[in-house]
Amino acid sequence: MESIEKLILEEKKKINWTTKNISEIIIRGNRLDATNYSSEGEEFRKIVKNYDGNIKQIKSIIDKIFVPPPIKRIFTDDENVGTPYLAPSDLHQTIVKSEKGIIEHEMKDIQDWFVKEKWLLITQSGLVGIPIIARKKLEKFIISQNMIRVIFKNNEDVNFLYILFKTKIGHKLLSTNFYGSVVTHIEPEHVEELTIPYPSTVIRKKISEQVDISLKFRDEADILFEKAQKTLAKHTGINDLKQLKPSYLESSQDRYFSLSKIQLKNRFDATFHDPIITKI
Predict the structure, then answer these.
(1) Residue 242: how many other CB atoms lie within 10 Å
(2) What is the pTM of this model?
(3) Fewer CB within 10 A of the end CB, N or C, for the chain?
């Protein structure tokens, strides 16, 4: 019996739990499901509040924060017609590459969809609150509307906030609300209202310099990676998927291709057959 009780106590230690005031539960609509509450998010906000140095709201160190207005987009696979487009998932790749383009002249307020070097980009949904510093190479792409754009008053704060949001505490601040509840979507207002620790200029400058060095190494690494891919293609014939364009029967938004009877394998659903795999 004693061993069973000991086992139960050990299992309890593995459970994340927290206590809440009845007033807080009422404010949140009498929600009793535990997933609506994050003890970590609340605790991290207490850590920031009790920070013995300077603290600031993000809106006091930025010039602008926004997402582009939603507009109709016309996609194309023709590189000669479309401007390369990046979805949030594309921005997390080792080498940033566009899988599709957008017909730019068909979009109003298209300038809001481009970004500038040293802007901070933050994912709105999916993997909420993932920060990315816009490098020079991103300026030629149309960037997804689902990336919050943050423009800072000085470059030091871009790098500092990027590193802060890459920490566990910083990410929890982004991905939880004021009460610590986990959120699945964030808006610019959520980000700019956050209170963050704001160390001295000397410390922020040191952090910024280290981030700049890491970004320089990333640019150099990208060049070497692309050279390695070209070497592989040259000696093996393995090319990028974008170069393996199937020959469709018609040029339209609907794609048609032909199969032999043997290739059909009695499967008449088009999704079963991939012309790119056949080319590979």
Answers:
(1) 12
(2) 0.74
(3) N
